[in-house]
Design goal:
The protein is mainly α. About 50% of the residues lie in helices and about 10% in strands. A two-stranded antiparallel ribbon has the order 1-2.
């Protein structure tokens, strides 16, 4: 649902589902659980560009559940935080 909310706001470069299927970043050993995934710095920058482009078009996203909107806003915060620090990305875990 969060990925649908991100896409509704123009962001297709990142996906919280990616946190479920990946492995821990190298050199950490494999483990099960958790699932782990990464948004690179470049993906974070592109996702924010997508968001800003969608906003600039003035398109209105479809109505979303308040919990999804809150989760999308949290993702935007993560993206902005990573974008403000060269080389930083986002690593997420799914338990």
């Amino acid at each position: 649902m969060v990925d649908e909310g991100l896409a509704a706001r123009g962001m297709t470069e990142v996906s919280v589902a990616a946190f479920e299927y990946g492995d821990l970043p190298a050199p950490l050993p494999w483990s099960y659980p958790p699932g782990c995934g990464e948004w690179t710095h470049e993906q974070c920058l592109r996702a924010l560009e997508q968001f800003e482009a969608a906003k600039a078009k003035g398109s209105t996203p479809p109505p979303l559940d308040p919990e999804v909107v809150e989760a999308v806003m949290q993702c935007l915060g993560w993206l902005r935080h990573a974008a403000s620090r060269p080389g930083f990305g986002v690593i997420g875990f799914k338990f």
